[in-house]
Amino acid sequence: MHDKTTGKTFLKFDQSKCLHYYFYFIDKELGFCYLRVPTWAPFRLQFYMNGHNLLASKLQKKEIAYRMYDNAFLEISDMEAAQKLSDRINPEDLHKVLDVFAKRYCPVPETLGLSYTWTVQQNSLYQLFTIMKAANYRYLEFVSSFDDHSRRKENLTKVTESVVDKGRSYRGLNFFAERDLQVLEVISRGEYMTFGMQGKDIRQHFKEVSPSAMSRIFKRLRLHGIIERVQGTYKYFATAYGKEIIAAGLTVKNLVLIPALA
């Protein structure tokens, strides 16, 4: 800024709102991506891609069968081959692709003779095999609970009782109430038992339920010990006790209610 009194021009530190442009596109190999471009020097870019989409593209080229739901691999026919493909993903090759995107959507640095150095903030591919093994174990543990009758009577009695939290009562589960059974049935889906869930995931199955109402449903399930929250995230997993309760609820529905009303 310029001081008219002294006739001197100088720099002054200040803060203001910054404008970014977001470019969204679908690449044939990387899938859905976006590039965030600032409007001021040094034009630090932020690029997003889902590494699972890149791996899916490589699996297709190798004709390896797989099944995905949203961002999760539910099944891969050859896990060892998939892990090898994941390990061979070369960051330097990816950087070359990012240089092309940078030139296309933010050409200013090139005109100034500048180039980019790319860093990876998160990578979820390299431990794919380990993650899938753990995920499969979680789902198999849930399926096995259908045949485990130990402590079932005690657990059923406990989960149907009300619990009190900060002076407010939360009713127990009613295995003859349609909504309670619907919630348990949705939670029992493979992708949620395997990879966890958020309120927005469950809400897509209940369009009439508001976000606040879903939050109350999740709190009720948590207070009854059916689900637990992953620390520092908004993701929940069914507990071992919760899996027994869900299995019992589905048993009541499929082996008692449906045959009796048929």
How would you explain this protein's 3D organization?
The chain has 262 residues and is of the alpha+beta class. Helices cover 46% and strands 17% of the residues. The protein has eleven helices and eleven strands. The protein has helices at 51-61, 79-87, 91-105, 108-111, 128-144, 152-159, 178-187, 190-195, 199-203, 211-223, 240-261; strands at residues 2-3, 8-9, 20-27, 31-38, 46-49, 66-69, 72-76, 163-165, 168-170, 227-229, 236-238. Strands 3-4-5 form a three-stranded antiparallel β-sheet. Strands 1-2 form a two-stranded antiparallel ribbon. A hairpin with a 6-residue loop joins β10 and β11 (236-238). α7 packs across α11. The longest helix is centred in the C-terminal third of the chain and has 22 residues, at 240-261. It is flat. The chain starts with a strand and ends with a helix. The mean pLDDT is 80.
